[in-house]
Amino acid sequence: MGAYVSLPTWWRSLDSRYRLVVGRCSECGAHTFPPEGACVGCNAVGSLVEVEPEGTGEILAHTVIESGAPPEFSDLLDAEGAIGVVLVELDEGARVPGMLTDCDPGEFGRGDRVEAVVRRIYKQEGVLRYGAKFRPL
Ligand SMILES: [Zn+2]
Known about the structure:
single chain; mainly beta; five-stranded antiparallel β-sheet; three-stranded antiparallel β-sheet; Thioester_dehydratase-like; NA-bd_OB-fold; ChsH2_C
């Protein structure tokens, strides 16, 4: 099923989940995801201005969750098969965790180019939740 996120929290974070909205620092220009808290570049607080990135980037880290994974992944594995989990550095510089989609997750990894697309993430509390996943380019 994935980690528990309450519906109000989910709804508050839709801009980040659908469009990967990041915070551009008005002090140093670095991009932080999600766009809240301190800047990852200079630790300035209150300096982040929300911007929508292109959604393209490069895989920095990669793993595949398959059968034998902890039970909280069983519904997702039954529905989707092996899950590719990635950390992507967007072209703007922000680092975003996510899942691979539209591919065999074992065939892609570090250094491959991806783009964000909106896909179903999982169902929780009777509501299908959608958000950005990464598709290889
Ligand atoms: Zn900064």
